[in-house]
Amino acid sequence: MNIAILAALAMEFSTFRWYMGRVSKKPLGIWQHYVWQHLGNRVILLETGIGSENAAGALNLLLRSQPIDCIINFGSAGMIDDGLKVGDVFLAQEIVDGTTGRILKTNAQMNDAISAFLLGEAKRYSCGRLVTSLEPVIKRAHRLKLAEAYAVGAVDMEAYALASVAQDQKIPFTSLKMISDRSNAMTRLEFWKNVPLIDRRLGKLMYGFLEYLQRAA
Q1: DSSP label at 168?
Q2: I want to staple 153 with a disulfide (CB 3.0 to 4.6 A). Which of 75, 81, 145, 187 is the partner?
């Protein structure tokens, strides 16, 4: 199976790369991707860059270059739901375009597999709706507006674009995030402060999930 794992920043996946061991780094246009043979699967890690345009461009180019069987987006997300806190794992069941309000569902089978893995690891996590914004959410009023309009738990800047490309290509897609900040005036400071935490915790979980898939096969 060819599994594509997508993250916006290299800072979000250095721990995951460390767990994977020897890696083949390859250019992909203006982007970089990494390829492993791991437990019978071919794992492709793609650094998309920040924002929807970068994300869609990177994924489209990857899909033109090689076959992909499923796609997992992982990385940081801002907190919208007051019930969440920094370091919480968030599994997106639906993804909203914060500009148009359009909603895409993530793949139920992939979500079930990730949920079973997280439960088996006794990891606290939340499921819900993720909204993709064109810009960082740095004002409380903006956060409250998104919460009211779309009933979302968290916000990012890439997932909807990735989900849309995956849907067009009929490739199963899901998004697993970790809350990095509270989506307010302190967003930028909190994000950069907490990226190492996201890298360590979520990278370890992603590698553990790949091992779980192999055991479950």
Answers
A1: H
A2: 81
Q: What is the pLDDT of residues 60-96, one digit of tens each?
A: 999 999 999 999 999 999 999 989 999 999 999 999 9
- Start-to-end Cα distance in the chain: 11
The domains found in the chain, sorted by start residue, are 2-216 (3.40.50.1580)
DSSP state of 12: G
Q: pLDDT tens, 155-202? A: 999 999 999 999 999 999 999 999 999 877 778 888 899 999 999 999
Among 60, 66, 91, 63, CA closest to 77: 91
Furthest-apart CA atoms within the chain: distance in Å: 48
Helix (H, G, I), strand (E, B) or coil at 77: strand
Q: Are strands 2-7 and 41-47 parallel, antiparallel or unpaired?
A: parallel
Q: Pseudo-torsion of CA 122, 199, 113, 72, nearest 10°?
A: 170
User: DSSP code of 172?
Assistant: -
pLDDT classification of 55: cutoffs 50, 70, 90: very high
Rounded-to-integer distance, Cα 198 and Cα 162, Å: 20
Phi-psi bin for 87: left (phi > 0), alpha (psi -120 to 50), beta? left
Which ranges in the chain belong to alpha helices (H)? 14-20, 52-65, 108-120, 140-150, 159-168, 187-216
Predicted structure pTM score:
0.95
Q: At what angle do helices 187-216 and 108-120 cross, to 10 degrees?
A: 90
